[in-house]
Amino acid sequence: MKKYIVEGGNPLFGEVQISGAKNAAVAIIPAALMVDGVCRIENMPQISDATLLMSILQDMGAHIRVLNKSTVEIDCSSLHNARIPYDSARRCRASYYLIGALLGRFGAADVALPGGCDFGGTRPIDQHLKGFHALGAQVEVQGGFIDARAVDGDRLHGANIFLDKVSVGATINIMLAAALADGYTVIENVAKEPHIVDVANFLNSMGANIKGAGTDIIKIRGVERLHGGTYSIIPDQIEAGTYMAAVAACGGQIKVCNIIPKHMDCITAKLLEMGVEVEEIDDNLLVRRIGPLVKTNIKTMPYPGFPTDMQPQMAAALCLAHGTSIITESIFSSRFRYTEEFKRMGAQIQVDGNLAVIEGVDHLTGAQVEACDLRAGAAMIIAALAAYGTSEIRGVQYIERGYENVIEKFRGLGGNISVSEIPDEEEALSAG
Ligand code: EPZ
Asked: How many angstroms does the Cα of residue 331 sit away from the middle of ligand 1?
């Protein structure tokens, strides 16, 4: 196991290139199994979730060719349906997209229930299953597996589906299954995140007929098959926002390169309220924080609202803002476990259910902390870079699930961060 060692207290300066969007990639890789041909996917992020999902496809007979560090070819022409084992599915929440993709292509899926980030609280998939049932699948959950199969033969049929809750995962999973269903599907009350539009665009570039992604209603006319093609994944809105939050916390000036400015609007608006300067230059943002940080309030909402995946990173900056800030987490029942770690660094945070009240302090002090999920881990790097002194961050495997070359990118901004192995005896002790 590894840990990150961070020497904090210095501002950040430099440029950072943003990689392909993790939450698009982890849906597009499962979607590739629906394609009877070769998918050439560009701007693929080098993250462990993507690597894991591609290895699952290979175990099912897909042929994968790595052309360069961010381009892969996935050929699922000869892929065979197979049960997705627990030890694969549990390591990546996005493994649930394999259900929709397998149902779409083969009319059957047998996938272990997903794992992924544990914020505390449950992460149900009832809306996914509601959609599959409406599309004509019989769905059974038993023994930790989801067994779904088309009732009529080996193909699903079109349906009208109204989601009870705005859900990114359910929106994408139902879209996958419906893309190859026989007939017309309308999904209402859908999520509108940029990565949902990206998955729809990927499917359409392979011959699907999907309209309305990014709006409240998605309309899908099922097709017989999907052909191969080339697609480039959009830049990662949350990765970009993470580096923007880092310079807000640490001070300095950075250029965030290769982004889609429109996707950053909700994050930029909040940073401007906090006294951060953001200037759009083509597909880049110049982000500068010279003066004091100012408190603000944040309420996480579905896109185009403020993203829940940016909540921990912004909390790290707000720990250093003058005044009292309030964060309301409205997407997940609780997503504040990381605040206990910030308190070890001297942060003044009170959590009550889905509310966090942050009293800004003059500075944080380096400490040993542990990441409990992907975005909390990124937030701990931010807090450690802003803190005076040395921090050690454990649980870095969560961070590397979704952040490509995170050490190199922060070093490129002048961050003093290194990796070291945790001695076995120390690891055994920390395992309690
Ligand atoms: C996706 O998770 C992302 N993960 C999450 O990003 C992100 O936080 C979340 O969307 C919200 O934007 C991936 O894309 C792999 P939801 P997902 O379904 O699909 C409830 C990261 O850091 N719900 O939009 O699981 C659910 O409990 C990760 O990159 C149901 O009740 O999120 C939550 O309260 C963390 N029933 C709310 O809806 C369902 O069937 C939104 O969840 C599905 C969801």
From this structure: 8
33 closest CA partner among 82, 101, 92, 106: 101
Q: Which of 117, 266, 319, 372 is catalytic?
A: 117
pTM over 0.90: yes
* Long-range contacts formed by 257-260: CB under 8 A, 24+ apart: 257/15, 257/16, 257/17, 257/18, 257/283, 257/284, 258/17, 258/18, 258/283, 258/284, 259/18, 259/235, 259/283, 259/284, 259/285, 260/194, 260/234, 260/235
Of all protein residues, whose CA lies closest to atom 44 belonging to ligand 1? 167
117 is catalytic: yes
Structure tokens at 382: 């931010």
Q: What one-character DSSP code corresponds to residue 163?
A: -
Q: What is the pLDDT along the chain (432 residues), one digit of tens a residue?
A: 899 999 999 999 999 999 999 999 999 999 999 999 999 999 999 999 999 999 999 999 999 999 999 999 999 999 998 888 888 888 888 999 999 999 999 999 999 987 655 665 678 899 999 999 999 999 998 888 999 999 988 899 999 999 999 999 999 999 999 999 999 999 999 999 999 999 999 999 999 999 999 999 999 999 999 999 999 999 999 999 999 999 999 999 999 999 999 999 999 999 999 999 999 999 999 999 999 999 999 999 999 999 999 999 999 999 999 999 999 999 998 899 999 999 999 999 999 999 999 999 999 999 999 998 999 999 999 999 999 999 999 999 999 999 999 999 999 999 999 999 987 776 666 665
Question: Which of 238, 204, 236, 239 has the alpha carbon at shortest distance from 218?
Answer: 204
Ligand 1: residue whose CA is nearest its atom 28: 309
Whether ligand 1 lies within 6 angstroms of the CB of 130 is answered as no
How many whole angstroms separate alpha carbon 68 and alpha carbon 44? 10
Instruction: Give the neighbor-by-neighbor strand order of the sheet with 229-232.
Output: 63-68, 71-75, 38-42, 229-232
The answer to whether the CB of 231 falls within 8 A of the CB of 299 is: no
> Which atom belonging to ligand 1 lies closest to the Cα atom of 402?
29
Q: Ligand 1: distance of its center to the CA of 5 in Å?
A: 31
